[in-house]
Design a protein that fits this description.
Layout lengths: L1 H125 L11 H13 L3 H14 L6 H14 L3 H14 L6 H14 L3 H14 L4 H12 L4
Helix pairs in contact: 1-2, 2-3, 3-4, 4-5, 4-6, 5-6, 6-7, 6-8, 7-8
């Protein structure tokens, strides 16, 4: 009976103590839960900030891409228009060139006919008819040889000029014939013979109008033959004898290239 009374007396105190401990544990759990909620909220806020930043960057990239697309579209339209204009210009230019080519063809045909006529005249001069009674004027023979020279028929020109100089050494065309004989050799690359022919111009016609250029081409021939001392001496003589001639200026330029002043 006494034990029962003791239990009844202490039970409310024990119950009260147990309740307080339970409340303390619950409060602690609530605090932990609140702390976890705050941390979770912070994490969510940070993630939301990152997502918003990415969205802003994506929107900027989309805007830039659209602007670039518009620029490309404008460029394409502009280039298309420009290409159409260029094509039209090319068509017009092609038409003009076609017309010019046609005109050039006509001119070439006319020149060819003229050359053929001249060739016929040359052959006539080389084989004069009986109406000339065996006498051919020197200027006509010179003209025939000079025509061969102009047309690049250097072998015929050489033969003609040689015959002319042999038959008409005192003609007013003799100095020219001697020069063009040398130049025909020169143009064929026969430089030894060219030097001899130019020497004939220099020695026989020292005051002739072809003498300066004969000196110059003689020097160039020496250079082609690798006879540099002779070439330099010829350039110097040309500069001394004909200082005001165009060939003298060319000679000075050649001497400067060779390091001689």
């Amino acid at each position: 009976m006494k034990k029962l009374l003791l239990i009844l007396m202490f039970s409310p105190a024990l119950l009260a103590q147990s309740t307080r401990e339970e409340i303390v544990r619950l409060q602690s759990d609530v605090l932990q839960l609140q702390s976890q909620i705050r941390m979770l909220q912070k994490t969510i806020d940070e993630q939301n900030g990152v997502i918003l930043s990415l969205l802003e960057q994506l929107n900027d990239q989309v805007a830039e891409t659209r602007a670039e697309q518009q620029d490309v579209a404008r460029t394409v339209r502009s280039q298309t228009s420009s290409q159409e204009s260029t094509v039209n210009q090319l068509r017009e230019e092609f038409g003009r060139m076609s017309a010019q080519l046609g005109d050039m063809d006509n001119r070439m045909a006319a020149i060819q006919r003229r050359l053929e006529e001249n060739q016929v005249r040359v052959q006539t001069l080389r084989n004069p008819g009986s109406s000339l009674e065996g006498a051919v004027e020197p200027d006509r023979i010179y003209s025939a040889s000079y025509n061969d020279y102009l047309m690049g028929n250097y072998e015929l020109a050489i033969a003609g000029f040689q015959d002319f100089l042999s038959d008409f050494p005192d003609s007013r065309y003799a100095d020219n014939a001697a020069y063009y004989l040398g130049d025909s050799y020169f143009r064929q690359g026969r430089f030894e013979q060219a030097v001899q022919a130019f020497d004939q111009v220099i020695n026989l016609y020292p005051k002739g109008d072809k003498t300066p250029v004969a000196y110059y081409k003689k020097a160039v021939s020496y250079e082609s033959l690798q006879k540099m001392e002779s070439a330099i001496d010829t350039y110097k003589r040309l500069s001394a004898l004909f200082p005001d001639s165009p060939e003298a200026r060319l000679a000075q330029e050649e001497l400067e290239k060779l390091g001689i002043r």
